[in-house]
Amino acid sequence: MHELSMAQGIINAVIETAESNNATEVNEVTIELGRLAMVNPEQLEFILGVLVENTILEDAKIVFEEIPVEIDCHDCNFHGKAIIDDKDHYAPMVKCPECDSFAIEILNGKDIVVKNIVIEKPDDD
Ligand SMILES: [Zn+2]
């Protein structure tokens, strides 16, 4: 399952960061979710909830931020947010909002990134 390996990767990255910062607990994790990452957010959230058990981020609040898709259009040189036809979630069509061209380069929106984590340290109040 795609979401399972994604979730495991996210958790490993958070644990690594937390440990290298001597955290005793992770309070919050912000995850950027690209519109084209082909991940079902509810499913990812569910798997994360299972995988964090008995880890340093067991009680962490997990926040998802959706990233818009940014493109460069080869036909009209438009640069910015694309239109996404995602009626079919597994093969969304991305096109230029200016000229409807599909001759585009996708710059952003394909990744899942751990953007920020909030940790607790032993000397914190
Ligand atoms: Zn265009």
TrEMBL record:
Metal-binding found in the keyword field: yes
One GO-annotated biological process of the protein: protein maturation
Sites where the protein binds Ni(2+): H2
Keyword Iron among UniProt keywords: no
InterPro entries documented for this protein: HypA/HybF
Family indicated by similarity: Belongs to the HypA/HybF family.
NCBIfam families membership: hypA, PRK00762.1
Protein name according to UniProt: Hydrogenase maturation factor HypA
